[in-house]
Amino acid sequence: MLARCGWFGVLLGCCIAFNGCGRSGEFGTAKTTGVVICDGKPVVGAMVYFEPIASAGAKSALVGKQGFSYTDDAGRFDISTYNPGKGDGAVVGMHRVRVGRGKAVCDCAMNSEVDLMQVEVKQGETNEFELQLKKATLADKKAEERNRDDDEDD
To answer: In Å, how far are 11, 58, 81 from 24, measured between CA atoms?
Structure first.
């Protein structure tokens, strides 16, 4: 009987150490919204990515899943991480933010491989971000073409 209780204690300890039995490994999220602007106008149909990154002093290399959204007709986005299209937010913590072309038609630099900025998503706070895109240079346009060609080759 004592041995059985001892194993139960070990199992219970392991569950607690691994952040709870039966959890799907999801990290906590917080509502994350905003707008993408190009030359003072909203960008429609762009892809917005919030990718968690390790912050200084982090106790683990695990940082969570990337959140994603398309911009709507007003250039607004509502990030979803675990429930696509449901706006469940981005993982709490530091993120690198990227904007990809998607179906957007404008003359601004967009590259889903290049960080636009870094932001912190905080629990219990308003996580509203304005993403200002710069005008595309010739180098930006060539890089975007290369990325598009690489995607077509896959």
So the answer is: 18, 21, 13
d(CA 85, CA 80): 6
How does pLDDT run across 82-135, given as a tens digit for each residue?
999 999 999 999 999 999 999 998 889 898 888 999 999 999 999 999 999 998
- pTM (2 decimals)? 0.75
> Within the chain, where are the H helices?
2-17, 138-153
Q: What does residue 4 show for φ and ψ, rounded to 5 degrees? A: -65, -45
Structure tokens at 17: 């150490």
The tokens describing 106, both together, are 């404008």
Nearest to 50 by CA among 82, 84, 79, 29: 79
Q: Please tell me the distance from the alpha carbon of residue 79 to that of residue 127, in angstroms, as a whole number.
A: 10
Tokens encoding 135: 């005008």
Tokens of 152: 């077509």
E strands of the chain, at which residues? Answer: 29-30, 32-38, 41-42, 47-52, 67-70, 76-78, 90-91, 93-100, 117-121, 127-133
Q: How many whole angstroms separate alpha carbon 55 and alpha carbon 81?
A: 19
